[in-house]
Amino acid sequence: MKRTHKKEGDIPPQDRVVSMDIIPEMKESYLDYAMSVIVSRALPDIRDGLKPVHRRILYAMHEMGLTSGVKTRKSAAIVGTVIANYHPHGDTAVYDTLVKMAQTFTTRYPLVIGQGNFGSIDGDAPAAMRYTEAKMSQITGLLLRDIEKDTVPFRPNFENVRMEPVVLPAQAPNLLLNGTLGIAVGMATKIPPHNFGEVIDALIHLANHPRATSEDIFEIIKGPDFPTGGVVFNKKDIQHAYASGRGGILTRGEIEIVDGGKSGTHLVITSLPYQVNKSELIVKIADLVHGKKIEGIRDIRDESTDDIRIVIELKGGGHPQKIVNALYKHTELETMFHLNMLALVGGVPKLLSLKDILDEFITHREVVVTRRTTFDLARAEERAHILLGLKKALDNIDAIIKTIKASRDTTLARENLKKKFSLSDAQATAILEMKLQRLAGLEREKVEEELKEKKELIKKLKEILSDPKKIREVIRDEFLLLKDRHSDPRRTKIMAQGVKNISIEDMIPDVENMLVLTNGGYIKRTDPSEYRKQKRGGSGVIDLDTKEEDFVNILLSAHTHSDLLFFSDKGKVYQVKMYDVPEGRRATKGKSVMNFLAIAEGEKITSVLPVPKNKKKASVIMVTNGGVVKKVDAGNFADVRRSGIIAIKLGKGDKLLSALMASGDDDVSLITAKGQSIRFLEKDVRQMGRSAAGVRGMKLLSGDHVIAAVLAGPSESAGALLVLSTGGYGKRTKLKEYKVQKRGGSGIKTAKLSAKTGTLVGAAVIGAEEKDILVISREGQIIRIGASEVPTLSRQTQGVRIMKVKSGDALASFACL
Question: Which of 20, 574, 677, 680 could bridge 750 with an S-S bond, Cβ 3.0-4.6 Å?
């Protein structure tokens, strides 16, 4: 193909067509189009985190004066201004962008405050732009701050009649705060939003320690912080994605299992993964129920207001945890957020790590602060120059007035002043424009004071410009101010481990906790320090807010790293870590045990056994209400599945009461409600398989039942048996008063009972290591006393008042610390 360079008028019409090969022409045209999409439409600038359309909308609102403190304006007026002045595209595209910047469920820190219907998380469309109004938010003010101080470059708009900013000054890193989503040609970007306080803390750390590593940053920025909350899993996956700029992060909505009272058990969805449509999720769950993929759901209803709340009612007999797992498996309640941190750096697309983004933003701030300081210095020097002229004029006011009066006109007066007093043109003009009121004494002092201030400011600004470290100090101080004003709590929870292994034992201190389980199935763990020590005989304090028909059933002490074996009255056993039990304050109710155990309807937890890690060759002794005893190798319960396993085969009408961890050399003592007790050797009970039914441990009197089983090893022979009754009475009796018998007997008397004392509710072996005792009533009253305050009495005594029990209440349980 040949080209000529003649003028168009010299070329005949038939020769003006140029022949070209279509392949290179298509390549060149497509590349031009692709770069236009990448640079001018789909990818954000790393400095302000905005695409051109977002930047133009915000700048147009800035020019319209729509700051956060003024009244809103019609969205149609904003869109019209953007299209007319900066963005020659369709009004729908511009309005859709404006809407997303105002949606609280889409944008973590909305850049626009909307008035009217701006859509919903259910996918509802916003109202037409003629009906809605908008203005900028406070965060947007941070992006535009100091733009009038020549902090960023400007370029002509599409008409070449006005100027628009190439980038915004951005005092806060919007790219990380709000994230972004963009699909260009051959590339895409997907950056999650983050917490303001964490991001600013990371920037402060980086400003103070420029050589900080990515690992240092990961300690500050834990992970994404989505506007809809949720949970993200696996610290390693998050850090790998942040380090490489690309990776998948597993996210889940939160589901809580709650007791709905008469309506049964409920699942309550309280948060959603980012960008999940709530209405479509509910429809999906309904379809799964109708298609029999998920069974056990009776009803679904949306109770959401400002917060997410989807209530799922379960049918009787359903397993809540199984349904929760099915919801995560088959719906968008569990999704993978595929992070791809691509942004424009110097106009070129670049894959960035988290630290790269922070470094580039600090570099941007250095440029902005330098340009702003240079601008402020120039203005200060200009003003100081004028003030020097005014001061000179005030010092020679009579001669100045005489010179002006002698001049024919203003122009000649200016020239005469410049020559006679060595003034610049600007100074001479300022003197001519000076008001007569400046001749007053106080006004003269103001000029001198302002001149002094300007000189100090000029000195300070020059010091900043002369030292890069001082510029970093300015940037750091601004970050500290931002943190104080705009930080907010994290919404998204971070789980250190993956979803298949959520345990984070290595991050939890191994400390003693109290576990409280009510008869109605509510459970919590509490720091023992919540219960201050009192004298015996007091009324105690309220431990938890139970329902009227509920009461405390189990109170025990265990360490947070302990495995807990939950034994039910049906003879099944379940396993949970102590730290997986929700922590609560002394007066909190706790959560339903169904959140953690897949127990059946009507099944109750009757015993909780902490399994210390140092118990290697141990056995589990199980005791029923009917006096049956069974011994099983503890290894059979080393890895209990979530749905539980059979621990003992029960006789008709019998229930599993208690489980104990035995060493092989212990004595077993059974105590009944009517005050009988039997003590026999653990070796008298042979070890059996899990499916066995056990052997007789104690022959019970008519109407009596076993209420406690305790172990006493050889080292504890000098200890005592502590018993407590429903009326609040208790005592200690030395173990040597209880002779060792053969199992299966009726036992001997352990307490003298009456209508005042009530029946026995529990027993425990007290050794030298026990310091305090926690006693709790059915209505939640609790008292902590020293073990030494309980007197040591003989078997045939009723004991002393341990706790003052109110009318209608009764002592329920106790634990030794």
Answer: 677
- Give one word for 116, left, alpha or beta, with left for phi > 0 and alpha for psi -120 to 50: left
Could you write out the DSSP letters of every residue in 43-61?
S-BTTT---HHHHHHHHHH
Stretch 352-380: mean pLDDT, rounded?
95
Give the CA distances from residue 320 to residues 256, 290, 300, 327, 594, in Å, rounded to whole numbers and listed in that order.
Answer: 10, 18, 14, 11, 7
Catalytic residue among 86, 131, 522, 574: 131
Tell me the C-alpha to C-alpha distance, in Å, between residue 597 and each of 261, 270, 314, 513: 18, 20, 16, 20
Please tell me whether residues 318 and 456 are part of one structural domain.
no
Q: Is 72 exposed, middle or buried (0-12, 13-18, 19+ CB in 10 A)?
A: middle
In this predicted model, what pLDDT tens digit does every residue of 712-738 receive, in sequence order? 776 566 688 899 999 989 998 988 888
pLDDT band with cut points at 50, 70 and 90 for residue 534:
low
Q: Is 501 a residue whose pLDDT tops 60?
A: no
Asked if the structure places residue 102 within a domain, the reply is: yes
| Contact assessment for residue 691 and residue 764, using Cβ atoms and an 8 Å cutoff | no
Looking at the domain assignment, is residue 415 inside a domain?
A: yes
3-state secondary structure of 362: helix
Contact assessment for residue 664 and residue 686, using Cβ atoms and an 8 Å cutoff: no
Instruction: For residue 418, give the 3-state DSSP assignment.
Output: helix
CB 796 within 8 A of CB 709: no
227 within 8 A of 193, measured Cβ to Cβ: yes
Task: Examine the pLDDT at 537 and tell me if it is beyond 60.
Answer: no
Encoding tokens for residue 795?
A: 């078997």
Residue with tokens 């909190």: 588
Instruction: Let me know: does 583 contact 630? Beta carbons within 8 Å.
Output: no
Residue 610 is assigned to a structural domain of this protein: yes
Active-site residue, 131 included: yes
On whether both 324 and 374 belong to a single domain, the answer is: no
Give the residue numbers spanning the domain of 397. Answer: 368-484
Neighbouring-strand partners of residue 522: 592
Which range in 483-492, 527-536, 626-635 is most confidently predicted, on average pLDDT? 483-492
> What type of residue is 612?
P
Residue 118 lies in a domain: yes
Of 365-369, 373-377, 471-475, 798-802, the poorest mean pLDDT is in 798-802
Mean pLDDT for the stretch of residues 645-664: 85
Which residues contact residue 412 at a Cβ distance below 8 angstroms, ignoring those fewer than 6 apart?
none
- The reported pTM is 0.66
| 3-state secondary structure (DSSP) of residue 646 | strand
Number of domains observed in the structure of the chain: 4
Cross-strand bridge partners of residue 633: 619
CA distance 677 to 599: 32
pLDDT beyond 50 at 659: yes
Determine how many CB atoms are found less than 10 A away from the CB of residue 285: 23
DSSP state of 203: H
Whole-number Å distance between alpha carbons of 394 and 400: 8
Contact between 766 and 719 (Cβ < 8 Å): yes
Can you give the pLDDT at residue 92? Answer: 93
219: CB partners within 8 A, 6+ apart: none
**Rounded alpha-carbon distances, angstroms, from residue 17 to 2, 8, 26, 64:** 11, 11, 17, 48
